[in-house]
Design goal:
single chain; about 270 residues; Nitrilase/N-carbamoyl-D-aminoacid amidohydrolase; 6-stranded mixed beta sheet; C-N_Hydrolase_sf; hydrolase activity, acting on carbon-nitrogen (but not peptide) bonds, in linear amides; Carbon-nitrogen hydrolase family protein
Length: about 270
Amino acid sequence: MTKWKLAVVQDDFNGEGNLELMESHITACMQKEPETKLILFPEAAAAGYIFSEEHVRSKAEPADGNAFSFLSVLAKKYKLYIGYGFIEKKDDKIFNSMNLISPQGELLDTYQKIHLTPLEKHLFSAGDRLVTVKTELGTIGMMICWDMAFPELARLLEKQGADVILAPSAWESPYEAPYHRMASARAMDNTVYLATCNYTGGKGDIQFFGRSAIFGPDGEVISSQTGDVTAEIDIEKRQELKENFYSMRSDERRDLYKIQWRKESCGI
């Protein structure tokens, strides 16, 4: 499938009844845009993004826990891929994670956030595995929020074949500008689509600003508005851009990069 619709959801997921709120967004999206193939929810949307050890521990669950069971039914009902953030408990550790569910309701993979912010490091263990998933829509790469600040991660996802990178977020004010600049740069760096969604609302000193967006392989915003965002993903267009001007991946001097990296690793 070379053309398909992707939707990203933004809302205040720091209240009660997050799963029911997610269901309402899915229902509304499918009524308005019935051809949508993938819906993405923000970072930790199933649990809420609150910097409290009590909250994190009380909301932590296995990847195939209650949130997955609930959303799996909706994925099958609407024949959708669903990506969402949650707090994962695994092997006596807690991770800031995201799941990708297939239209058949299957758990395709779980990504554990690799780059934790200073506010997160005392709450979560850091992930150590890159995740890409091959689907009928193309290859999907997964990252979370602050991961977008690291060009190397997006590059490695692209090297693993990613056509689209999903980046659910909980990005707070006053950092609206870096949120869009980093997302745009990661898309253009690798000539990939990048979809990111954010919270609205907030509590106390932490306030979220929304501004969810879908970026094209040239780094341009192809859809961004105050509510939920939908855009067409065109895999063939991505290939055309790679062959016309945005040819960085084929033009780069990997031979020199490898030499430099070896020197640095040896302390030269």
